[in-house]
Amino acid sequence: MAGIVLLTGATGFVGKQIYKSLVQDGIRVRLVLRGAISDEFLAEPCVESCIITNDMFAESLEWWESACHGVEAIIHAAWYVEPEKYLDSPKNIDCLIGTLNLARAAVMTSVKKFIGIGTCFEYDLNHNYLSIDTPVAPRSLYAGTKVAAFYALRELFKNAKIDFAWARLFYLYGEGEKENRFVPYLHDRLSAGLPVEMTSGVQIRDYLDVKTASRMIADIACNNKIGPMNICSGVPVSIKDMACKIAEEYGRKDLLMFGAKSLSSSEPLCVVGVV
After folding, report:
1. 16 and 119 together in one domain
2. In what order do the strands lie in the sheet with 113-119?
3. How many domains does the chain have?
4. Which residues, other chains included, contact 264 with Cβ-Cβ below 8 Å and sequence gap of 6+?
5. Exposed (0-12), middle (13-18) or buried (19+): which is 67, by Cβ within 10 Å?
6. What is the pLDDT of residues 178-192, one digit of tens each?
7. Which domain holds residue 189?
8. Rounded to an integer, what distance in angstroms lies between the CA atom of residue 212 and that of residue 94?
9. What 3-state DSSP class applies to 154?
């Protein structure tokens, strides 16, 4: 890609890996960042510029229009995702409003492609194996605002003749993951020789390393893929098997206390993506 890719959320769990993938490909990137610019970004020749904001979701349409000027493609990876808070936080509404302003600015500045980040939670999880044809049925404000963003952006960009891709993420793990998430929590407890209280572990999930997922997203900027798509492995793995695999690294499967916690009635038993 000869043009500039504008990336939001480059310091986040997923966005940082998307940034690394773009740089590995020698793609020029313009970053929208909250707070100070790190030395990592300043030293990277592929970084065309960094735009600083206190809250990108509160910025005006005019601000976004200036940020998008001269951009060929946008990868919008930013959203509010604070663990244990994000699912029903009102901040999801702010993220939706800010995303729509960014999208309108993309139209006004003739951006050629827009890649948004969705979630597997948009789908009706009663279907267990989820394809892009599975009906949507969000169960949280987070998922609901993602669905709203998808439909609004799809119609806006269709009328403006801008290529639009929507990447629905499944269960990601790996570098940069918050310590209270499932995989790093297991590593932390097991490495310290501490027991891990768990449910029965029968829940089936679709796990994918964040580096692989982010490479898939970065590649969308350079190919002709459009529309909704699942960013997933397509491989069903039980939580019990995932935990046992990690415990084997420490030789401490004995620390896994399956059945110590009750399984929530609201928790889906099976969430697997169809590639």
Report:
1. yes
2. 47-53, 29-34, 4-8, 71-76, 113-119, 163-169, 227-231
3. 2
4. none
5. buried
6. 888 999 999 999 999
7. 176-204+236-273
8. 29
9. helix
